[in-house]
């Protein structure tokens, strides 16, 4: 897991989105490993995290490629 205090420290190191192309981190409650999650998609939070992370990745590439 990536505890909240570590998330905040990581965001500060990455510039909180201020550096091009704008690194951002999404948090998906109930998921143990972000977009690479291979969890049980019958759990609504896990399914939302998997689908939301995929959507965010596609939108990032559409914007920056």
Produce the secondary structure layout:
Layout (H helix, E strand, L loop, with lengths): L3 H10 L30 H21 L1
Question: What does this protein structure show overall?
Answer:
The protein is mostly helical and 65 residues long. The protein has one domain (4-64). It is 48% helix and 0% strand. It has 2 helices and no strands. The protein is flat.
Distance between the termini: 31 Å
Structure class:
mainly alpha
Count of extended strands: 0
Instruction: List low-confidence stretches.
Output: none
Helix content: 40-55%
Strand content: under 5%
Mean pLDDT: 81
Structural domains: how many: 1
How would you spell out the order of helices and strands?
HH
Rg, alpha carbons: 13 Å
What form results from the Cα inertia axes? Answer: flat
Question: Mind describing the biggest β-sheet?
Answer: none
The number of helical runs is: 2
